[in-house]
Amino acid sequence: MAKFILPPNSRVKKGKTFKAKKGSGNIRRFLVYRYDPEDGENPRVDTYELDMNSCGSMVLDALIEIKNKIDPTLTFRRSCREGICGSCAMNIGGVNTLACICANEDVKGDVKVYPLPHMPIIKDLVPDMTNFFDQYASIKPWLRTRTPETSDRERLQDKHDQAKINLPS
């Protein structure tokens, strides 16, 4: 299991259990890490039972179902739902992955959902991305030119510069 950055002297405790509605058929349990530094409590793992017949096929669909229909206090990031942006990165079943491309059926047993283990946690499944964005800005991952910037018009790229980018690899 992954190691998490927790507040000093804290331990993850068992949290609340939210049972599926009576008459639900295809039940799956989701064990979701919950932590709110503002309430002063230790982190906990809440258990949510979902009827998979009324839920989408990805873990992100299940989290949205939980937030929309069971527990609106659950906090997580999401954006593109296509595995492009990385907003929904979390630890699912012991593997760091994207919730939008992780199929529920690919996770064996109960679905254990935790925040990314190598980052401080803001709340629940939301990691603090400050250090990431600081590093990202420091490497300047954009095209730079030798000409000075002008704020009054768009900077057009000439064919010669475009050819440098399109070199065969």
UniProtKB/TrEMBL annotation:
Residues 148-169 are annotated as: Disordered. Belongs to the succinate dehydrogenase/fumarate reductase iron-sulfur protein family. Its cofactor is [3Fe-4S] cluster; [4Fe-4S] cluster; [2Fe-2S] cluster. The keyword Oxidoreductase applies. This is succinate dehydrogenase. Residues 148-163 have a biased composition (Basic and acidic residues). Its EC number is 1.3.5.1. GO terms for biological process: respiratory electron transport chain; tricarboxylic acid cycle. Residues 31-119 form the 2Fe-2S ferredoxin-type domain. Pathway: Carbohydrate metabolism; tricarboxylic acid cycle. InterPro entries: 2Fe-2S_ferredoxin-like_sf, 2Fe-2S_ferredoxin-type, 2Fe2S_fd_BS, Beta-grasp_dom_sf, SDH/FRD_Iron-Sulfur, Succ_DH/fum_Rdtase_Fe-S, Succ_DH/fum_Rdtase_N. It comes from marine metagenome. Keywords: 2Fe-2S, 3Fe-4S, 4Fe-4S, Iron, Iron-sulfur, Metal-binding, Oxidoreductase, Tricarboxylic acid cycle. Pfam families: Fer2_3. GO terms for molecular function: 2 iron, 2 sulfur cluster binding; 3 iron, 4 sulfur cluster binding; 4 iron, 4 sulfur cluster binding; electron transfer activity; metal ion binding; succinate dehydrogenase (quinone) activity.
